[in-house]
Design brief:
By secondary structure, this protein is mainly alpha-helical. The protein has 1 helix and no strands.
């Protein structure tokens, strides 16, 4: 395997890792946003029950 082929394989692996990182970040952001929304909704209902 030539050095050019090795660098191509390395670049493909880097691209794959970057895509996985972006995908993981999207899932994490979505999870945090969903959790925050649920906390706000439960707080809203709790405040309505106390009034």
């Amino acid at each position: 395997m030539s050095s050019n082929e090795k660098s191509n394989v390395g670049n493909k692996m880097d691209d794959s890792l970057m895509d996985n990182s972006i995908n993981d970040a999207r899932w994490l952001l979505g999870g945090v946003a969903t959790l925050g929304f649920l906390v706000m909704v439960s707080g809203f209902f709790a405040s309505m029950l106390t009034v």
